[in-house]
Specification:
Blueprint (H helix, E strand, L loop, with lengths): L1 H9 L4 H8 L4 E2 L7 E2 L3 H17 L17 H5 L9 H11 L1
Antiparallel strand pairs: 1-2
């Protein structure tokens, strides 16, 4: 992951500063996506707090998604079972086989 990010940012400068910001941050898996590196939790909390304050000044409510920040979930959210979902690919395949 760091190699790809470094290559993408190298021509713009600041690649080391961005990579340094992520050092010490957790690697988390969100939903079905592959695990990814996150900024450290305290840094994200400060950023979200700043956004919430800015939003409040303008009458906008800002909230943090526990789905996109799994380490921000409350214990009650962690205990709730995830809603079941139906993959669409089998439905798509059945439909296409009837057409073709």
């Amino acid at each position: 992951m760091t190699e790809n990010l470094h290559q993408a940012l190298a021509s713009h400068g600041g690649a080391e500063a961005v990579l340094d910001a992520y050092s010490g941050g957790p690697t988390l898996q969100v939903g079905m996506a592959r695990a990814a590196c996150f900024l450290p939790k305290t840094r994200r909390q400060r950023g979200y707090a700043a956004l919430m304050a800015l939003g409040a000044e303008r009458g906008i409510t800002v909230s943090v998604s526990g789905a996109l920040n799994p380490d921000f979930r409350s214990p009650q959210q962690l205990e709730r079972p995830r809603a079941s979902w139906q993959p669409l690919l089998p439905v798509f395949n059945r439909t296409c086989s009837r057409v073709g």
